[in-house]
Design a protein that fits this description.
The structure is a homodimer. Chain A is built from eleven helices and two strands; from the N terminus they run H-H-H-E-E-H-H-H-H-H-H-H-H. The first copy, chain A, is mainly alpha-helical. The longest helix of chain A is centred in the C-terminal third of the chain and has 24 residues, at about 215-235. The interface between A and B is large, with 50 and 50 residues.
Amino acid sequence: MSADIRQRTHELVVRHVEDELRAGRLRVGSRMDGERALAESLGVSRSSVREGIRVLEAMGLIRTAVGSGPDSGAVVVADAAVGMTSALRLHLASSSLPVEDIVQTRLLIETWSVREGARRADQAALRIAGSLLDAADDPDIDAEQFHLLDAEFHVALAHATGNDVVAAIMTSLRGAIHGYVMAAVPELPDWPAMARKLRRQHRNLLAAIQDGDGERAAQLVEAHINGFYRATLPAVTR
Amino acid sequence: MSADIRQRTHELVVRHVEDELRAGRLRVGSRMDGERALAESLGVSRSSVREGIRVLEAMGLIRTAVGSGPDSGAVVVADAAVGMTSALRLHLASSSLPVEDIVQTRLLIETWSVREGARRADQAALRIAGSLLDAADDPDIDAEQFHLLDAEFHVALAHATGNDVVAAIMTSLRGAIHGYVMAAVPELPDWPAMARKLRRQHRNLLAAIQDGDGERAAQLVEAHINGFYRATLPAVTR
DNA sequence: TAGAGTATGTGGTCTGACCACACCAGATGA
DNA sequence: TCATCTGGTGTGGTCAGACCACATACTCTA
């Protein structure tokens, strides 16, 4: 693997954990050695171990917890969406990725997802999506809760494809622009009307998928996403 | 933003940089303050600053360099593909993301990309893709160089869509499975024949895009990807 | 004027210390 | 006997301070 170039110490730590995963000595749910033990066994300082662990944590690979007992320490969780969401959010902040491109990518991912979801007809996954819509019907929730449920609904549809990579990408696309969505809400002339429209579109979309009508679902989700961003984007990018 | 829950110090550092980016006080190409100065201005230790910087670096947001002068220190580079590639690679190592899902996601992204590329007809971008194929025609390069150029070609096609998010996703999808591709090469009965076939398919694909024939390009890229993985995946997942 | 030598500031690494926390086992009480 | 309190112990989180290798920019010398 051409280790000619200088490898920093924390990269060695990341590489070590990656190798342990690849070899199957670490798997999802495993508890890693403590930072001090890892430092000693690799012959590096605890600071360097911590830098590596920070990277793994930011990638959604592990989770850390203080204290003692079986839940403490670094545990492999492997939540792929975490790292991708952070990456997208940060690059969005740096203006190196335009919001428009994210929206277009959503269109491409989601039209495929609902077609695939309609084809697979994974009833359990669709039931989850439906219960999220039920929760979003609660008139007492505020705008932020509504849009979080909205995001969860779209992610649930992505999960109905059975493709974990697509689901992770969808989670990160929707999660990264949550801040932009919330920034747009106060700018909307009539948010309650918008929410009613979104609820209606969600129901129709889910019905089309459950009917196995992938084409109709694709058209509905495209209109749904385009409609929302045409109403909100001008307010934020202004 | 409800900072009720405990925020660790390195997260404060990440958040600080994110805010600076969002406010425009930092942009791509900017040089960040030194670690010591940042630690003092935020009232935290240098170790914590470094942990935050490690995260930003892993996300592809910044690049660090030792020494002195204008190129040293932490500089904002905003290479979105870096973070996503690492995230995918690590989750692939943990078996939480199956290779098959990545391949299926490539199909979805790339069929869209070549359709969009054919529609946009970005001559400059397509010329870059073509020159990568020229380089890959060199009979002296080895398997690794060939597959790296192969990956670059597919990424170049994604760039021809003009969508930076799609291009970053494509880069990470292809980059994350590079190790798997290289692991499969020695298992192939006749790699030179495979390479000849891939070269031919690449040329036909690029020609279809340049002809503006998105449908044909989509069919070609689908057959191209499916063909390669049907030949290699069994060797690796075994 | 050209070159060698030096000063300076950068990230990279290490050591060792202390803290807050969460669990767990043994002591204590009813 | 059982419930409750109370330390002990090990975890990550944070900090201070030191030294190193390195790359540039400056200064001095031949």
